[in-house]
Amino acid sequence: MLKNTESSYGTLSKALHWLVALVVFTMFAVGFWMVELDYYSDWYKTAPHYHKSVGLLLSLVVIFRLFWRMINKRPEPLATHSRLEIFAAHVAHLLLYLALFAIFISGYLISTADGRGIEVFNWFTIPSAGEFIEQQEDIAGSLHKWLAYGLIALVSVHALAAIKHHFIDRDNTLKRML
Amino acid sequence: MKKTLLKHSMLSFVSAFLLMGTASAAEYKIDTKGAHAFINFKIQHLGYSWLTGRFNDFEGTFSYDSEKPNDSKVMVEINTASIDSNHAERDKHLRSDDFLEVDKFAKAKFVSTKITDKGNGKLEVVGDLTLHGVTKSITIDAKKIGEGKDPWGGYRAGFSGKTTLGLKDFGIPERLGPASTEVHMSLHIEGIRQ
């Protein structure tokens, strides 16, 4: 079933969830690795180019995911979930989305600080919106890095919670996203 | 009467001498406000071309008297974060730990220790450059471009200079390949007499 029901996520929600998860992990690893590349590495120019291209496309996917979430039913929390668990899960989900968008925006602001646009796979160019603050590339760069670490920390909490529900509580929380 | 005249003439002699004294140690402020001063650099890119850039934010003073050029002095302080190579991503990289570490070493400073007139308007400027936390004596081959009244009631003097800095000498790793181990500085300053 493409759409969500009251008790489970639909195929599209699941696909979007796991696609975003996979891309986020890959982007984090690539970002971590590419900033240390030697100037003479074959990847010195290509890795940041792919990182930026994928990041911008991912932002579109996440926007669509939010749109899909809005126009769709939201599965109810399981009856066994405590109020604290439900609240904590909501906060975590909200923070995950906020962190994602903050990372998209800060990343965009690094590369566009000098008026240059960002080429997405030599396919199309997202134009620069200009420089908003002095040394924007440094400030945005630092935010981008720390937000990325923060996101991975949040993702770890999110994943540990899912594992706890699956193996300790032995409920359906994780299964309905699979 | 005679006494007072003598006293008077002596006084004026002394004050004239004092005035001369201040004139000979003319102090100039480098005109960074009106951006008539430039700290430019160039470094080889892969050995195939030159990459140029500059530091946008700095200030300094010098003293100069064309009669006594050897008494000249110059001091310049540079905000290292103001490096500008016309590419935000590259500037970010140049400011990072890989190169200038501007978080740690926000200022670079040059203070002259000995200025020698070489004739024909040429000057050898020896001084201590502090860059990336390392202080080293460097020599700038300088040249006086001109001096005189400006159209707005001030008095200006200008110089240009060249020097070459080895990245390694200032503890900056040579990450850019064998052709890019030194950076060539091209300095242009204009001072307004204070």
Our measurement of the CA-to-CA distance between the termini of chain B, rounded to an integer number of angstroms, reads 39 Å
Radius of gyration of chain A: 18 Å
Proportion of residues in extended strands of chain A:
under 5%
Number of E-type strands of chain A = 2
Report what the structure shows.
The complex is a heterodimer of chains A (178) and B (194). Chain A has helices at 11-34, 43-70, 83-111, 136-168, and strands spanning 118-120, 124-126. Chain A has 178 residues and is mainly alpha-helical. Chain A has a single domain (11-177), classed as Fumarate Reductase Cytochrome B subunit (Up-down Bundle). Chain A has a two-stranded antiparallel ribbon. In chain A, helix 1 runs antiparallel to helix 2 and helix 3 runs antiparallel to helix 4 (136-168). The longest helix of chain A is centred in the C-terminal third of the chain and has 33 residues, at 136-168. The two termini of chain A are 13 Å apart. In chain A, 16% of the residues are buried. Chain B has 194 residues and is of the alpha+beta class. Chain B has a single domain, classed as Lipocalin (Beta Barrel). Chain B is 16% helix and 50% strand. Chain B is built from two helices and eleven strands, in the order αββββββαβββββ. Chain B has helices at residues 2-24, 88-95, and strands at residues 27-30, 38-45, 49-55, 58-63, 73-79, 83-84, 107-119, 122-131, 134-149, 155-166, 182-193. Chain B has an eight-stranded antiparallel beta barrel with strand order 1-4-5-7-8-9-10-11. The longest helix of chain B has 23 residues, at 2-24. The radius of gyration of chain B is 21 Å and the shape is globular. The model of chain B is unreliable at 16-23 (pLDDT under 50). The interface between A and B is medium-sized, with 16 and 11 residues. Chain A: This is Cytochrome b561. Chain A: Its main location: membrane.
